[in-house]
Amino acid sequence: MQQAAIGLGVNLRVLAQRPDDPAALVMPGTMIGDHDDLDVLRKFADGCDVLTFDHEHVPTDYLHELEAAGVAVRPGPDALVHAQDKGKMRQKLTELGLPCPAWALVATRDDLADFGAAVGFPYVLKATRGGYDGRGVWVVDDLAEAEDVLAGAAERGVTLLAEAKVPFVRELSAQVARSPHGQAAAYPVVESLQIDGICREVYVPAPGLPESAALEAQRVALTIAKELGVTGMLAVEMFQTPDGEVLINELAMRPHNSGHWSMDGAVTGQFEQHLRAVLDLPLGEVRPVAPVVVMANVLGLDLPEVYPAYKHVMAHDPGVKVHMYGKGVKPGRKIGHVNVLGTTVGDAVERARHAAAYLRGEIDE
Amino acid sequence: MQQAAIGLGVNLRVLAQRPDDPAALVMPGTMIGDHDDLDVLRKFADGCDVLTFDHEHVPTDYLHELEAAGVAVRPGPDALVHAQDKGKMRQKLTELGLPCPAWALVATRDDLADFGAAVGFPYVLKATRGGYDGRGVWVVDDLAEAEDVLAGAAERGVTLLAEAKVPFVRELSAQVARSPHGQAAAYPVVESLQIDGICREVYVPAPGLPESAALEAQRVALTIAKELGVTGMLAVEMFQTPDGEVLINELAMRPHNSGHWSMDGAVTGQFEQHLRAVLDLPLGEVRPVAPVVVMANVLGLDLPEVYPAYKHVMAHDPGVKVHMYGKGVKPGRKIGHVNVLGTTVGDAVERARHAAAYLRGEIDE
């Protein structure tokens, strides 16, 4: 976001947990502290015109306290809670008549069995907030497995949400921006390729998506932004079912991995758009600047240092846009991404995939 | 340059004269000190992989000292001196057979008279380095005026260069990048509109420029980059004469005002390209992402604060890209610029001009 803030001449300050957090490395005046400490939050907010987020983990109650003290929190806690708590998200979206997989909050063995009877096994259990043992999502094949998850969750005070396992042909993401006075803008709907639950690639616009389906996905995202009172960027991750319908999977109220393509591929990138939205400035044009844009994440693998790989990647393809986050390399960690502007999906995917694979050390020749 | 450095995951440090210099406001670890103090330069260079510049004012001798001490200075002093000293520039370009206006170093009344006899009055006098009374260029109408300038210069130890006043139809700029191992890339040749010696607008590509003339301008710039051993970005400002030829006006060995369009308008912006070049990374694609790109400078005028004007500018035209530098507003000072991607020159110029005029306070409705 600092790149966009520099362009706009907007002074960005960050609350970081550690001095070597990526954001802290690229801007002055960083405050080091915990985002779940109300005193730290109060001190940080002092002198800020607007407070915004790059993750969902600031406790909702603390955000209410800050709002009560006059801080402009954007998105506000009444909106953000729907990105923090999957149970509240499902309740609200269902109230609004928006398309969700079958779901239920489950607290007992009977709840688990009833849900299994209704949708069949396997189904999905999710922690409504956080998770345990480093996980927040479990696919359970039968009642016994479901009971194990429930027992583990109960021990730790974690509430569970059950969802039908949707048979989908692909995942889509609809991103919109909305400002406090209600202006909204919808980016093209994109397809995201997830492997083991991690976003690997994004194709813009979603290849072969009929206009009616794209408009419906955008309508869903705009409705959510409006009805939940979102300010800033909203990403609505969706499943596309075999019969072409879309079902809402997750919400994120911040710039999102599925929108990184826009940093090079749209007239207004999502980080600039987020700043414009939370500052209540008019929103920017969302038009892509190429017929096809492809983003590929760089996941840490073998290379301890990515920089030496630049020479090959940049020589091989002078059009690849490299974005590295200044994070230490750990296997599986998102440490950067590449964007490619192209004319055909096949060509752009091949170029982005090669660059990302080389940067992570998957290709050694 | 910090925006590009963030994208590449490259750690940029700046030597600034004051803590509120624009660059110091957007990156951590700024060192405050004078660029004409060798001890400061040595201390700053310690630990840098590469030293580069955003102006030409670091004394050539000090750069030689740093190079001798093993610092990678890019561009090096043997190249940079041609952007620092207009006399050396003219000598070298003439040796290389590159097209310059008629010129002479002038130190006496006879020199001034001889040059007037050769090219006629009015002609142009320039300080080879710096200037005096806040000026470095004088147009003299007759010998008496020329003598006045010479007397003032002599008093201050300033060397003068005389140049024919070129009758030109417009000004062009050819930007190229060159890396230490010799790779080079040429951006499209652009037209720049100068008013009172200050760049106001840039049109990309230069409208109506025949391909042969564009290729010739690029050849000139690539030749200069190679023969002078330039590393990083080089801008060659040129006059286009009524018969379609180009004559070299000035050189800049850094990202340049005539290349700001590329920040939004090319696959690789000039700041990223400069970093790639001085780091000896392969250069990026220079292709524009729109048929027409127009840049308009925002010059300080009446508004003490530009930010309140954002609402109008962004609402009026969501496609305008605003770049503000975090400088205090002073009349005539370049405090920012806007870029517009378009399909026709007329439309893009009108959009960029409106936005720049509104940001500076020239339009109040």
UniProtKB/TrEMBL annotation, chains A, B:
Give the E.C. number(s).
6.3.4.18
State the UniProt keywords alphabetically.
ATP-binding, Ligase, Nucleotide-binding, Purine biosynthesis
Q: Which residues form the ATP-grasp domain?
A: 90-279
Pathway field: Purine metabolism; IMP biosynthesis via de novo pathway; 5-amino-1-(5-phospho-D-ribosyl)imidazole-4-carboxylate from 5-amino-1-(5-phospho-D-ribosyl)imidazole (N5-CAIR route): step 1/2
Q: Sorted alphabetically, which Gene3D superfamilies does this protein's record hold?
A: 3.40.50.20, ATP-grasp fold, A domain, ATP-grasp fold, B domain
Fetch the PANTHER family from UniProt: PHOSPHORIBOSYLAMINOIMIDAZOLE CARBOXYLASE (PTHR11609:SF5), PURINE BIOSYNTHESIS PROTEIN 6/7, PUR6/7 (PTHR11609)
Cross-referenced InterPro entries? ATP-grasp, ATP-grasp_carboxylate-amine, ATP_grasp_subdomain_1, PreATP-grasp_dom_sf, PurK, PurK_C, PurT/PurK_preATP-grasp, Rudment_hybrid_motif
Put simply, this protein is called N5-carboxyaminoimidazole ribonucleotide synthase
Q: Which family does it belong to?
A: Belongs to the PurK/PurT family.
Q: What does this protein do?
A: Catalyzes the ATP-dependent conversion of 5-aminoimidazole ribonucleotide (AIR) and HCO(3)(-) to N5-carboxyaminoimidazole ribonucleotide (N5-CAIR). Catalyzes the ATP-dependent conversion of 5-aminoimidazole ribonucleotide (AIR) and HCO(3)- to N5-carboxyaminoimidazole ribonucleotide (N5-CAIR).
Q: Does the keyword RNA-binding apply?
A: no
Complexes and interactors = Homodimer.
Superkingdom of this entry's organism?
A: Bacteria
What positions does the entry give for ATP binding? 86, 126, 163-166, 171, 249-250
Catalytic activity entry: 5-amino-1-(5-phospho-beta-D-ribosyl)imidazole + hydrogencarbonate + ATP = 5-carboxyamino-1-(5-phospho-D-ribosyl)imidazole + ADP + phosphate + 2 H(+)
Quote any Pfam family the record assigns. Answer: RS_preATP-grasp-like
